[in-house]
Amino acid sequence: MGDDMAIIVTFDTPGVGQELYDACVSRLTDGGEFTSLADIPAPGLISHAAGPIDGGWRVVDVWESEEAFENFGKILQPILADLGHADGEPQITPAHNVVTR
Which domain of life is it from (predicted)? Predict the structure, then answer.
């Protein structure tokens, strides 16, 4: 994957749910809400969706580049580690097409 290509990042976290997600959002936004892409302290996020799956929780992001996602990871990983969930590996795939509203 080239660094200039949009990527789809999928996090599946078995055995956890909205509580962990909300805790991460709270830390990322200094206690604020995540209702706009600008609320997250990392440039390059194109879209974000999160919700329950069978036995866990799923987050699907689209990032403008692998580099943008890696920069966000440097912020997110210590938060996940502190919350006891540093072991998740995201699935990263190249985006063939990205359409936003």
Answer: Bacteria
